[in-house]
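Reading group handout, session on sequence-to-structure problems. Before we discuss, look at one worked example. The prompt was deliberately terse, the way you'd type it at a terminal:

> structure Anaerobic sulfite reductase subunit A

The input record follows.
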Amino acid sequence: MNFQLEKAKILPKENLSQFLEGVRQFGRLIAPVKKKEKYIFSEIDDVSKVETDYVRTILPPKKFILGYLRERFEYSPERMEFVENFKPQPQVIFGVHSCDLHGIAILDAVYLKGDNPDPRYLAARKETTLIGISCVPDDDCFCISTGTAFPDGTSWDLFFTDIGDSYFVSIGSVKGDEIIHSLESIFREISKKELSLYKRVTAEKKHLFKDKNIPDLERITQVIELEYDSEIWEEEAERCFSCGTCTNTCPTCFCYTSVDMPSIDGKVVTRIEFITSCQYPYYSLVAGGHRFHENIKERFRNRYYHKFVGYPYQIERFGCVGCGRCQHECPAGIRIVDTLKKLRGAGDEEEPGKVTNDIHSA
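And the output record:
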């Protein structure tokens, strides 16, 4: 009996370069490349520089969709006529890990929500093809806790799972199917053995995380709300530089500010938006000199509140995808996982299970 699976194909690894060259017909190619000892997403001229075996990039791929610095519109101060000049290019972002796919899904929920989606973001998303790839976690990854270790529940076109000599390529959209058909000769059908291997590799991923590196996020929203006045915020914030590295490297942070830049003759004004950070002292400054988050402790706590209290109320999911960038890049060595464990009181119990046993024996 011939085995057939309609929604996936096999790509031998020796055909990866052909795939990357071929996928250029769908837009400019963006992929991870090595930069000294780290990795970044970059536009690709030479596909031999594409890296598939990496843990995380410095910045998430959102920079090619949302933009850290962007022009919103320009207008004439005399006529007050507004013109949007943004024309996104078709682009293919290859090598996106599951956590970053979830990060984009969260941005989608924020920017495309309701009847009035952000037109600039919507235009960029329509022109973006997303190709994910499986990964192996390191000690800073905790996506298994945030439920983002796999791409389920996100929007992607193709997803590559490493099964040894080949990639198991799942097809997630019509665009993904179109790519496969256009490059049909370099793919082959799946064998039963390869399907079994795919299922085994997927099932084994959760065992790659070390318990000491992952937080228990069960009911963490309530824990954080109940610990609003905890001294832990002060203790953790004492080490914080307010540099904003944590938010600038985050796949889901989207806070921005804007300035109007007039031309030299003053006839045209351009509205420029740029990413900022709730950790900066000026961020919450409003008219009259009032600050909503006056000191480092309040700003530090605000970030956790937004991720684990605000997001669940707004979009019914955490605003953290467990990528580990914030704690990996933090110059002060602050680890979000450790802060969450302290808030939960991990280590407080002298005997694990004693609380449960005491309750049942009462």
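Points for discussion. First: The chain has two domains: 8-211, 220-344. Second: The chain has a mean pLDDT of 92.
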